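Example 3.2
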Amino acid sequence: ESSSESDSSEDERQLSPELTSKKQKISHPSISAPLEVAPSVSKQSKKPTPQIIVLLDLASLETVKNRRGVYELLNCDDHRDLCRKKLKKDPNVYRPDILHQELLALMDSPLNKAGLLKIYMHTAKHVLIELNPATRIPRTFKRFAGLMVQLLHKMKIKANGESTTLLKVVKNPFSQHLPAGTRCYGFSCEGELYSPISLAKTFVPPSPEKCETPICFVLGAMSTGHITINDHPYIEKMISISEYPLSGAAALSRIMGGIEHHWGI
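Structure, written as tokens:
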């Protein structure tokens, strides 16, 4: 899934197009095991409707092609020299591992296992990705990187031996994928401070059954900076979940935990 430094130097790598034509032959890292649909653990006989929507914004997902013609996920560890010499950017900006950690925090949450969570990802290159709640995200970063390379070039990933689409690239803007009446809130260290419990009590209905329209939370998936209302005009209010700086995964765990406590999940 990643070429060795002895096979090709960083200077020989070239930046590839973010989304490649379907007619173009694509080389990409292989994944050791195909994706499968996670078994349902909901106790309800009827499939619940997702009531919480999460958008992970400004994720660093970009591909590069090495000397052997294999596409890799651009990251600060494997492509530090390329970032500095060719892209003229700080390598620390390219942190797809942040998105990986945030996705694991969301997919592992009881809220997702109860079928009440819907996840979207939006990259810094303005690629919008929809994630099937039944997807099993790879636990290791190398497999996750290979999966993202395939997704960015093939536009969708299907479950092994099934017709179920687990990840797919969808059209912008994100707002057109929100059900009518959805209330959106952004998270930033500069927002109004709420504890996880008070956040759930203030912005989330008492139970999923009483949630007439979904609630959308927008969080960043980048290494520096924060999201703003200027970038997401549909956001009603900016919120902070802690008085301390937190990683995206830690912030999501606090948010999901507060809602789960509020709903008794």
